[in-house]
Amino acid sequence: MNINGTPYRTIWTAADGRTVQIIDQTRLPHDLVIVDLTGLTEAARAIKDMLIRGAPLIGATAAYGMALAMAEDTSDRHLDTAATTLLATRPTAVNLRWGVERLKALLAPLPEAERLEAAYAEAARVADEDVAMCAGLGEHGLKLIRAIHQRKGGPVNILTHCNAGWLATVDWGTATAPIYKAFDAGIPIHVWVDETRPRNQGFNLTAFELGQHGVPHTCIVDNAGGHLMQHGQVDMVLVGTDRTTARGDVCNKIGTYLKALAAHDNGVPFYVALPGPTIDWTVDDGVAEIPIEERDPAEVTHITGALAEGPTATVRLTPAMSPAANPAFDVTPARLVSGLITERGVAEASRAGLAALYPEAAHGEDKGGAA
Prior knowledge:
This protein has 13 helices and 18 strands. With 371 residues, it is of the alpha/beta class.
């Protein structure tokens, strides 16, 4: 996708063929900063501190993190250290485990002398596959948007939550891929972008990238979604997911569950877009089994934005003596999901629906996420 007319992916290798470069998403939308990752520690910090985020991009960064580790030391011991270090960064997105385990399974049987080149080549394949999967699911989601447009005869109003855009993947995005495909196809669309507290990823990231692509959109507060649905101003809700269970529960940014409840109450279709590696075939009950990341309370108590005169500043929102809790995700049960948009088609949010699209994974051949 483009930033100021220049095409970018969210992660790539520099001219030296070894340094990995990323966009520091904590600085958007006010500053575009490119960060160099030169070793395992920097890759782990980029994931943990959310310089990059979004399940597919976390998986790709984990793969490149394994490659950076091999540039430091190709021994078995360091391979194990790299896997342990990366897996400890963030607990919720299953793509993290998938990316690490994919690289480790490839590298472990190889002679040490062959691991470095193999690691970088495989990480590049992970990134390219993610782009292809997101483009593919975009085509399937486009059919849903086109059908709404043909039935309605007017612009399609889509509500999204958090950032499941190209900034959350290597390119195209998950929830935004159908939106970009529809816009590029000339279908009139409009996107309601909610703020997504506490990190404001809707405002900071989704609105930023939609604006760069020219997609009509309006920023709203998180609590406005239900009101808009009650008044017929939302034709579909389209979100991403950090982990989808084998039976179709979806774990996404905190607040997604409330959007799903409002959509269900108002008869608004609620779709979730995801590439295959985001499915965790080892988990059934998302509410009971998915670990929910508890992040720094300062994300709740403080906020960063641009001052009127230009520079950014961080200010406190809450009383100094008031504690804060910060669960980063919630789980939406499959019963509230109208369909799961994948690179292989649109599945019913159920074990049978997913198994029909991913039979090799559902039958136990791939417990780390389907490719």
